[in-house]
Amino acid sequence: MTAAPGTGGSEFTYAASGVDIDAGERAVTLMRAAVEKTNRPEVVGGLGGFAGLFALDTARYRKPLLASSTDGVGTKIALARALDRHDTVGIDLVAMVVDDLVACGAEPLFLQDYVACGRVVPERIAAIVTGIAAGCTQAGAALVGGETAEHGDLMDADEYDLAATAVGVVEADSVLGPERVRAGDVVVAMASSGFHSNGYSLVRRVVDRAGLDLTATPAGLDRPLGDELLEPTRIYALDCLALVAELGVETVHAYAHITGGGLAGNTVRVVPVGLAAVLDRATWALPAAVRLFEEHGVPRTESERAFNCGIGMVAAVAPEHADRAVALLTARGVPAWVAGTIGATDGEASARLVGSYR
Predict the structure, then answer these.
(1) Which residues, in sequence order, are CB contacts of 1 under 8 Å at separation 6+?
(2) Which of 54, 55, 83, 159 could form a disulfide with 155 if both were Cys (CB 3.0 to 4.6 A apart)?
(3) pLDDT digits 0-9 by tens, 254-264
């Protein structure tokens, strides 16, 4: 006999079906303080509404363009699960979207996240979202809302995935990109903090096939491999905006966020037809962790396509101001150097690496 409507004891409840509303509400309570710390003056209302509201002050802009970007963290999450450490993948999530926004010169304004999981564990969800909030703070963006969805029928109990959309703004006459890049520009490289959030399907394959211990410290590294691989992605947004504010769009012509496809594959996206970017490997050292995976069978060609190889962002800058650009970024805590040049070519736009790593 089933219980009467409105009484307990029924197997036909949302919780029995795999969705625990109470756990979801507890997760919101645990994350609330971290989310509220990301608020900008333009944020209207607070956590819990059906939509996030943001009052764009159009009087600040001559002709504003809104920019948007959507991305996720990918299989780096599998390593976070394996090590049961969930407080940094949120930073990775923010980096993936805001550093795409700033590539066109846009200031990140706000972000919304989506967390899908097999089972809501409030403390785990709170750790993830606290990381997202930390990333938003680094980027100067408000976390105006999001969604935590419990999908027990689609995902294992401890499985989760992350995605986010960020919105930014840039003046129409200040958009950066290949249209501004010209022959003679130099390529200023900005150091990565590690593998960032790309290439982890290959990383995990090598770890599994080679039997690498994530808790051990391999030769050449100064910390356990798991710590190296979970290092959060560097967020360049405010540093790139500061560079433009200091030098102007007549000097800083384009940014390329080095993600999937590697250094050459992403740099070419900001090189116009008739020009070629040449990047000199001798200007930086290949990270020890990348060398480790090459020692376990990853060919150099694959390293340079799957991994950032030590560079997370590049800028195309007028040559007469390259030293100032490097000095400004370095002063802001972002190691930077001139890694190459952009010159004329007879063919399609291209980018290539030459020389040998230090």
Answers:
(1) none
(2) 159
(3) 999 999 999 99
